[in-house]
Specification:
single chain; 698 residues; alpha+beta; Isoleucyl-tRNA Synthetase, Domain 1; OB fold (Dihydrolipoamide Acetyltransferase, E2P); 6-stranded parallel beta sheet; 5-stranded antiparallel beta sheet; 21 helices; 28 strands; 40% helix; RNA-binding; metal-binding; ATP binding; Anticodon_Met
Length: 698
C-alpha cells in the first residue's frame, strides 16, 4: 500500500461490499455500487490502472432460513438472486470488471488457502465454547437461528449482532436467555469445539493500520472502540451445512463445521480480482501484484453497517495470510425514502426494476445517489428531490449549456470556430481539473461531480453575458471556441457519474473514440473542427404531474401492504424488526435511522459565542443580523430570530455557534456561521456555566 496521490504507478483495485443474495435490489442498495463504479471510472480519467470487482455473498444463515421456507436448496436460492444482481447492475451502468460469487470454485479454493496459511502461521486455535442447541429440533443453532438478550446492553439481539441495541458483533454463546428461531422454544447451551482466529494478537497492528488507513472519517473512527478496547478472538466456524467447509486436510480438522460467512465473503475480493486477471492476462492486470506485491492501491467501498468487518476482521485476516492491507475504506451512508427507512415488507421502496420501468434514465439516479451527499452522509430520496436535482442541475445547467453551445457552434461555424482558447477560460478549466483530482484524492465523489456542474454553470453565465448572438462572427468566434472547449471538459469530468449521457455529449461533439477512454488531460485538448447540430438536449425535465403520479403509486403500495397486517420494518439488508402497536413508528424511524457516525459529529466545529449586536435586515420579515464573538474573532451571522426574541435583549446572550458552516448570503447580507436554537419558538441553546466565547463544544 502507498500513500502517493492518485494516479500512482501501481495497480489499483476498487471493490464494493458484496450484496447479500437474499432479496431484490432497491435504490438504497444501489448507492454503494454507483459510488464504487463512479470512483473507479474517475480514477481511470486520472490515468490510474484500476480494476473494479465485486460478487454476491452466497452463504450464511439468512439464506439457509429463507431457502428452507421456499423448499429449495440454499445454493439454488442464492444463485437465483446472484443472477438477478448480475443482470441489474449493468442496467445502471455499474460496470464491474469481474462479478463473481462466494460459492464459486475460485473463492472456495482461495478461502481454504487463507485458512491453511493462518494455521501454518499459528494464528488459529481450537477451543470448546458454549453453543446454543435446540433439543426439540435436535440441532445446533448458528447465528440467526438464535435470539435473546445482548450481554452488553440488554436489548433484544440476534445471535450474531445486537441489531436493536448497541450494534456490537456477537460470538456464539454470547446471547443471554437464548431462544431457538426454529421452534420458538428456549435453547440450551452445550459444549462444542470451534476454531478461532487469534484476532487479539493483531491489536497493535490494527492500531497502526487504522491510523494510516485512508478513506471516510466514519471508517477511520468507528472501529477505534473495538481496536483500542478488549479485542476478542474471532470464531471462524459455524454449526451448519451451507457454507465453505473447513479444510479437512488440516490437523485437528473441524468436522461438520463450515467457515463463518465473514471469512469467505471478503476473500471474494481476492477471488474476483484473480478471475479478472485470468481472463485478461497478468500482463494486463496482475492480481498477485495487487494482493502480495510490494505496492498496490486497494480501496473498499462499503455500507457503513459493515465497517467493523472491513477495518478489524479483514485486515487481520490479510495480515495473518501475508497479504497486503487496503489503502482505504470508504463507507457510504444509508438511503432513506421520504425521511424514513426503506421497508421491503411494507413495499415502501423504490425498486431497481421499478425505477427503470418508469422510463427514467439510469444516469439520472446515478447522479442523484453520487452527488446528493458526501460519501458517508445519509441520502434522503424522494421523487420531489429527485425531480429538483434533475431539473435544476442536469437539465437547466449541464444539458442547457451543452445544447446551446454546440447548437450555436454548429449553425454559425459548422463546428469549433477557428480561434484561440482565451487565457481566462483555459485557467478556469485547469482549476476545475485540479479540483477534480483533489476531490478524488480525498475520496469525495460528490465534489468531483460538482466540478463538472460548476464548469457548466460557468459556461452558461459566460455565454449569457457575452451574448454571441448579438456579435458578428469575428467577435463571436472566441466566445464559442471557449464554450465548445468547456463542453468537452464538462463531458470528461461528468463521465464517471453519468457515463451513458457523457457518451451522447461526446458523440454530439464529434470527438473520436469514447468519453470513457478520455483522461483529465483531454479537457484542454482541442475539440473537433466540425460537428453537426445536436439531436436535442441531453436531459429532459420531469414535470410535477409525473411526480404526483409516482407518489400516488408509492402511497397505494404502502397502504396495501400495511392493510395486509404486516407491521414489520426492514432495512437495506432485508432483515426485519417488529414494531409494537404502541410505538410511534414515524418518530422512532426519525430517531433511529437519521443517524450520523461519531466522525461526522467531530467534523462539526461547535463553539460558545456571545451576541454583541443584533439588528433587523431591510426587507426580511424574520431575519436579524447578529455580530457574535466566538473568541478568536467576531462573526456576522444571519439568524431567523426576529419576532421570536426582543432584539434589545439579545445583546450579551451566550449562544452555541456552528463555526465551520459554509458562508451564505441572505437578503444581500453574508452569514458566516449558524446560531443553534430549539423548536419553532427558537429557544436559543446556551451553556449552563460561564464558558468563555470560543470554547469548543464536545
Amino acid at each position: 500500500m502507498t500513500h502517493e496521490e492518485f494516479p500512482t504507478e501501481h495497480p489499483a483495485l476498487v471493490t464494493c461490499g458484496l450484496p447479500y443474495a437474499n432479496g431484490d435490489l432497491h435504490v438504497g442498495h444501489l448507492r454503494t455500487y454507483v459510488s464504487g463504479d463512479a470512483f473507479s471510472r474517475a480514477l481511470r480519467t486520472l490515468g490510474q490502472d484500476v480494476a473494479f470487482v465485486s460478487g454476491s455473498d452466497m452463504h450464511g444463515t439468512p439464506i439457509a432460513v429463507n431457502a428452507a421456507k421456499e423448499g429449495v436448496s440454499p445454493e439454488a436460492f442464492a444463485l437465483r438472486h446472484h443472477e438477478q444482481y448480475e443482470e441489474t447492475f449493468p442496467r445502471f451502468n455499474v460496470d464491474f470488471d469481474n462479478y463473481g460469487h462466494t460459492h464459486d470454485e475460485t473463492n472456495v479454493e482461495l478461502t481454504q488457502a487463507f485458512v491453511r496459511a493462518w494455521e501454518e502461521n499459528d494464528h488459529v486455535y481450537e477451543r470448546e465454547i458454549q453453543v446454543a442447541y435446540d433439543p426439540e429440533a435436535d440441532q445446533w443453532l448458528p447465528d440467526r437461528y438464535v435470539e435473546g438478550e445482548c450481554p452488553y446492553c440488554g436489548e433484544h439481539a440476534r445471535g450474531d449482532e445486537c441489531d436493536e441495541g448497541c450494534q456490537r458483533h456477537l460470538e456464539p454463546g454470547d446471547i443471554v436467555d437464548p431462544v431457538s428461531t426454529l421452534t420458538g422454544n428456549p435453547a440450551e447451551y452445550r459444549e462444542r469445539e470451534h476454531k478461532f482466529l487469534r484476532l487479539s494478537e493483531f491489536q497493535e497492528y490494527l492500531t497502526g493500520f487504522i491510523n494510516r488507513m485512508e478513506g471516510t472519517s466514519n471508517a477511520q473512527n468507528q472501529p477505534r472502540e473495538w481496536i483500542e478496547g478488549d479485542l476478542q478472538d474471532l470464531c471462524i466456524t459455524r454449526d451448519m451445512d451451507w457454507g465453505i467447509d473447513y479444510p479437512d486436510d488440516l490437523d485437528g480438522g473441524a468436522e461438520d463445521l463450515v467457515l463463518y460467512v465473514w471469512v469467505d465473503a471478503p476473500i471474494e475480493y481476492v477471488a474476483s480480482s484473480k478471475q479478472y486477471s485470468e481472463r485478461v492476462g497478468a500482463d494486463t492486470y496482475d492480481w498477485e501484484e495487487v494482493w502480495t506485491g510490494d505496492d498496490s492501491e486497494i480501496v473498499h467501498v462499503i455500507g457503513r453497517d459493515i465497517i467493523q468487518h472491513h477495518t478489524v476482521f479483514w485486515p487481520s485476516m490479510l495480515k495473518a495470510a501475508d497479504y497486503n492491507e487496503p489503502r482505504a475504506v470508504c463507507a457510504t451512508g444509508f438511503v432513506n425514502l421520504n425521511g424514513k427507512a426503506f421497508s421491503t415488507s411494507r413495499n415502501r421502496a423504490i425498486w431497481a426494476d421499478e425505477y427503470l420501468q418508469e422510463g427514467f434514465h439510469p444516469d439520472l439516479l446515478r447522479y442523484y445517489l453520487a452527488t446528493a451527499a458526501g460519501f458517508e452522509r445519509d441520502v434522503n430520496f424522494s421523487w420531489e428531490r429527485f425531480q429538483e436535482r434533475v431539473n435544476t442541475e442536469l437539465a437547466d445547467v449541464v444539458g442547457n449549456f451543452v445544447n446551446r453551445a454546440l447548437l450555436f457552434a454548429a449553425r454559425n461555424f459548422e463546428g469549433t470556430p477557428d480561434a484561440e482558447l482565451t487565457d481566462e477560460t483555459e485557467t478556469r478549466i485547469a482549476e476545475a481539473m485540479d479540483d477534480y483530482e483533489d476531490a478524488l484524492n480525498d475520496y469525495d465523489v460528490r465534489a468531483a461531480g460538482e466540478t463538472a456542474v460548476a464548469l457548466a454553470r460557468y459556461g452558461n453565465e459566460y455565454i449569457q453575458n457575452a451574448e454571441p448572438w448579438k456579435l458578428d462572427d469575428a467577435e463571436a468566434a472566441p466566445v464559442i471556441r471557449d464554450c465548445v472547449q468547456l463542453v468537452k471538459a464538462v463531458t470528461v469530468l461528468l463521465q464517471p457519474i453519468t457515463p451513458e449521457k457523457a457518451e451522447e455529449a461526446w458523440d454530439q461533439l464529434g470527438a473520436e473514440g469514447r468519453a470513457a477512454d478520455a483522461t483529465v488531460g483531454d479537457c484542454l485538448q482541442a475539440p473537433p473542427e466540425s460537428f453537426p447540430e445536436p439531436d436535442g438536449p441531453l436531459f429532459e425535465k420531469i414535470d410535477d404531474e409525473r411526480v404526483a403520479e409516482l407518489n400516488e403509486k408509492l402511497d397505494e403500495r404502502v397502504a396495501e401492504a400495511t392493510a395486509d397486517g404486516d407491521e414489520t420494518e426492514s432495512d437495506d439488508t432485508t432483515e426485519d424488526t417488529t414494531m409494537t402497536d404502541d410505538t410511534d413508528t414515524d418518530a422512532f424511524e426519525a430517531l433511529a435511522d437519521d443517524r450520523i457516525d461519531f466522525g461526522t459529529f467531530q467534523d462539526l466545529d461547535l463553539r460558545v459565542g456571545r451576541i454583541e449586536m443584533a439588528e433587523g435586515i431591510e426587507g426580511a420579515d424574520d431575519l436579524l443580523r447578529l455580530t457574535v464573538d466566538i473568541g478568536i474573532e467576531t462573526r456576522q451571522i444571519v439568524a431567523g430570530l426576529k419576532g421570536l426574541h426582543d432584539v434589545e435583549d439579545l445583546e450579551g446572550t451566550t449562544v452555541v455557534v456552528v463555526a465551520n458552516l459554509e458562508r451564505a448570503e441572505l437578503f444581500g447580507v453574508e452569514s458566516n456561521g449558524m446560531v443553534l436554537a430549539a423548536g419553532e419558538d427558537a429557544d436559543l441553546l446556551t451553556t449552563h456555566g460561564d464558558s468563555e466565547p470560543g470554547t469548543k463544544i464536545k
